[in-house]
Write a structure and sequence with these properties.
It is a single chain. By secondary structure, this protein is of the alpha/beta class. It has two domains: 2-159, HUPs (Rossmann fold, 3-Layer(aba) Sandwich); 183-302, Rossmann fold, CATH 3.40.50. Helices cover 27% and strands 27% of the residues. The protein has nine helices and 16 strands. It has a nine-stranded mixed sheet, with helices on both faces. Helix 5 (202-211) runs parallel beside helix 9 (290-302). The longest helix is centred in the first third of the chain and has 15 residues, at 63-77. It is elongated, with a radius of gyration of 21 Å. The chain binds flavin-adenine dinucleotide.
Length: 303
């Protein structure tokens, strides 16, 4: 099986998700090639053929031009799998490529199960395994779902080119307004998950964060319930944080949440379920009811 991995540049820099694409290729056991529209002086440490187009000629993004570059590389590689990251680049480009190839597209893949692609459904509450009926498949993979793999040497560069008469012109990227909360710089983030149970118990998380001089974060259900504002959501559709200390309170550890906190230093999780997936990434899992445990911890730090 062959795969073509689509790396990307974001705001002028090589996005580090390329190594997760390489990790995905390792999990599927496929013979991998990569495509990058990027800077020649910032190449991924990928052991394999790298189809390369210079960003100065093709821009950081243009839907038609970049689609045509991907199709050119597909013509050279003949991959079974065309794999994007589940980012705004992948969201926009993957369906365009799939439509041009008249092939199946599976979004937001978080695992492989017996040859099928695992994706979330029911707003992330359940998982399903998808087996496309077309031989070739275009995929996007969830950030954080596949362990990054970096190679040792230089990639083998293969120039790729394409033309288009684009109806759309890419002008640049503007980050969204932060609503006054910037979790990305906080040294300590204490996050509330659905396990807090109700709005009042979010106060326990606030008190611990205050005692530690940190910020309050949240998983998506807490934001969806209106217990905390969206600006505090951590995860693939929230903020990406990298504090020295991350405390996950009543958070199960869904891949979409992990994507936002995987760069944290020390991770402490408080959960009643000793088998919660957050335990796999936590340095310390305290199996306890947070309603009992958080006030004890807060009191220790206040003392
Ligand atoms: C496209 C997409 C994007 C998403 N983006 C994000 C995102 O950016 N961020 C995000 O967080 N999620 C996101 N999600 C949702 C994600 O899939 C999960 O549903 C969500 O992260 C689960 O949140 P949770 O861990 O708080 O809740 P749950 O998964 O319900 O976990 C609650 C945990 O609390 C524990 N618990 C219960 N009671 C207690 C107690 N008294 N004391 C201690 N522990 C207790 C339980 O054992 C459980 O482990 C996204 C989903 C999709 C499909």
């Amino acid at each position: 099986m062959k795969s073509l991995l689509i790396a990307e540049c974001r705001q002028g820099r090589l996005a580090d998700g390329w190594a997760e694409l390489a990790g995905f290729a390792g999990v599927t056991g496929s013979e991998a090639s990569m495509l990058l529209v990027g800077h020649p002086d910032e190449l991924p440490r990928f052991d394999g053929p790298l189809y390369f187009a210079d960003i100065r000629d093709f821009g950081e993004y243009n839907p038609e031009l970049h689609r045509n570059l991907v199709l050119e590389a597909i013509g050279a590689v003949h991959p079974d799998l065309v794999v994007f990251q589940h980012t705004s680049y992948g969201w926009d480009l993957a369906p365009r490529v799939a439509a041009a190839l008249k092939t199946a597209q599976v979004s937001s893949v978080s695992g492989i199960d017996d040859g099928g692609f695992v994706t979330a459904c029911c707003n992330g509450k359940m998982r399903r395994t998808v087996r496309p009926s077309t031989h070739r498949v275009v995929l996007t993979i969830q950030p954080g779902a596949f362990a990054p793999v970096t190679g040792g040497g230089e990639p083998e560069l293969r120039p790729v080119s394409a033309s288009a008469d684009p109806a759309i012109r890419y002008l640049g990227t503007r980050p969204p307004a932060m609503e006054g909360i910037d979790l990305t710089r906080a040294p300590v983030v204490v996050s509330a998950g659905r396990g807090v149970g109700n709005r009042e118990n979010v106060g326990l998380v606030r008190e611990l964060a205050a005692a530690l001089g940190g910020e309050v974060g949240a998983s998506r259900p807490v934001v969806d319930a209106g217990w905390l504002e969206y600006g505090r959501q951590v995860g693939s559709t929230g903020q990406e944080v990298s504090p020295e200390l991350y405390i996950a309170c009543g958070i199960s550890g869904a891949v979409q949440h992990l994507a936002g906190m995987k760069g944290s230093g020390f991770v402490l999780a408080v959960n009643t379920d000793r088998d919660a997936p957050i335990g796999e990434v936590a340095d310390l899992l305290v199996v306890a009811d947070l309603v009992e445990f958080l006030p004890l911890l807060t009191a220790r730090f206040k003392a």
